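ingest -> validate -> predict -> emit
validate: passed (alphabet ok, no gaps, 393 aa)
predict: started
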Amino acid sequence: MVRGILWRPRDGGRLIQPRFGGAAHGMLVALGSTEHDAFDHQPGHGSQALRIGILTGGGDAPGLNAAIRGVGRRALAHGDTVIGVKNGWAGLIGDGDYMELDRRAFSGILQLGGTVLGSSRTNPMKREGGREEVLRNLGRAELDALVAIGGDDTLSVAAWLAEHGGPVVGVPKTMDNDLSVTDYCIGFDTAVSRVAEAVDRLHTTAAAHHRVMVVEVMGRDTGWVALMGGIAGGADLVLIPEIRVSLDEVLERLQRRLRSGSDFSIIVVAEGVEMEGVTDKEAAGGKRDAFGHVQLSKRGVGETLAELIEERLGHETRTTVLGHTQRGGTPSAYDRIWATRVGVAAFDLVLQKSWGMMPVVRNGAVETAPIADVVAEQRRVPQELYELAKVFY
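emit:
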């Protein structure tokens, strides 16, 4: 794929005629060029075939493969070359790790959980010169565009790259559903279904043994999965990080149920809930990932709450931690459809050279928004939605 695209650094560096015309190519050889200058040329979109990279970063989520397939199949239909970047941003660090994807690579992956490209929580921004290293590897891979599929951490890196001239677009993925601007994030619907199914199953055993069952689900800073899963499963109480509920309030709710003749209860609690008697998140002692998040797997908020309930009320209590079962397995039909739609829309943004933008879902339609706006703040559960859930407590 030899090209003769010319581009000229704006600050007086010499004119370069790269052998390959990827949008990232040539940035290291331009004398005196800046990061913005390295992407100053515009690759052709007529008969000129493009090289488009795809990566998935952060925690895996059901529906990622549907998005990968959406981007890839749309690109192949356009006559372009698709490059899969392996293991998130790690695939653009060091020597780089990527592979060409043909039509067969997208066959049979729609219904698969996880990601065929692999993922990681590698953070180039925590590595000295890491972001510049990613920019250099975009050039070495001769990529005209990169589609970054991920949550706030992955997309924060993408936003920086776009700000510094990188030909990057994003796709919203997080089972936590906490990206702002968009109503939909890949993986959320499936995760909610997993929680609802688990609560359905626990109802029968809790009733049979007259127990309180505490179900711990994912949700570090936001409680979307806990609240929606709890509503769908008919939980008797849902505890989320956004709404502070005291231990006394929890105990009073359980006692009211006992007095009304209900001798079992189901409590859904997000792993990031703060409550007296429960170790503070920052003091939990877990390792931190590359983006600075404390790992909460050993904090045991569900187990601690169960122990406090049994100690205070004398009511037999058990804990179920759903953990990574919320991430794994076949994506729901809803996640497959919408992941496909935002994947195809991301490719369309590439054709438009809308760098720094990403598809979002609002009011049942695919729209576009700046990546920087999407990661600017977390989308948190509103008070009125929590009040709706309380109607059924």
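The first helix runs from residue 64 to 77.
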